[in-house]
Amino acid sequence: MTLAARFDDIGKPALIAVMILSFVFFWPLGLVVLGFLIGSGRMACWDQGRGPRWQRRMERWQRRMAQWQERAEQFRGGAGGGGGGCWGRPSYSASSGNRAFDEYRDETLRRLEEEQREFREFLDRLRHAKDKAEFDQFMAERGRRSDNPAPPPQQ
User: Fold this and answer.
1) Distance between CA atoms of 121 and 86, rounded to whole angstroms?
2) Environment class of residue 94 by beta-carbon count within 10 Å: exposed (0-12), middle (13-18) or buried (19+)?
3) CB under 8 Å to 72, separation ≥6 — which residues?
4) Alpha carbons 107 and 111: distance in angstroms, whole number
5) Which of 28, 72, 154, 155 is most deeply buried (CB count within 10 A of its CB)?
């Protein structure tokens, strides 16, 4: 019979007594016993025989992931959740009922997306130019250091 099976046979009150006595006589052993009891789930009052501990945790995570995916679909507007655009934003084809407004909105959104793309390209060019200037400065300083080696320290 293993030690864990013996612990199961003696019951929770005896396990608590063993833990307390191990703390009294040699506290590191008490910590080991406490860690074993908590880690193995033997002292869990909330267990109620619902199956292995890790299986319950996995099922709970799967439920959470399913809920998260449902919310993400609702947020994006998929799964019958309204607008068909990205992140819940109505797509260009969603009609407000006013054709002139729809054309204005579509044109404005296209123009804003184009400006956003151009601005991102500008930022990329700006970062590239800054990186190049820093690299050129580094290479120039490195070249100056190799041309003029430092004199040995005098004592």
Assistant:
1) 22
2) middle
3) none
4) 6
5) 72
Structure tokens at 6: 């013996």
* Cα–Cα dist 150/51, whole Å: 73
The phi and psi torsions of 50 (rounded to 5 degrees) equal -90, 20
pLDDT, one tens digit per residue, over 57-72 is 788 888 888 888 888 8
Q: Please, what sign has the CA dihedral across residues 56, 62, 64, 66?
A: negative
- The pLDDT tens digits of the residues spanning 85-97 come to 555 454 555 677 8
DSSP state of 41: T
The sign of the CA dihedral 59, 63, 66, 68 is negative
Greatest Cα pair distance in the chain: 89
Q: Do residues 37 and 73 lie in contact, with contact meaning Cβ atoms separated by under 8 Å?
A: no
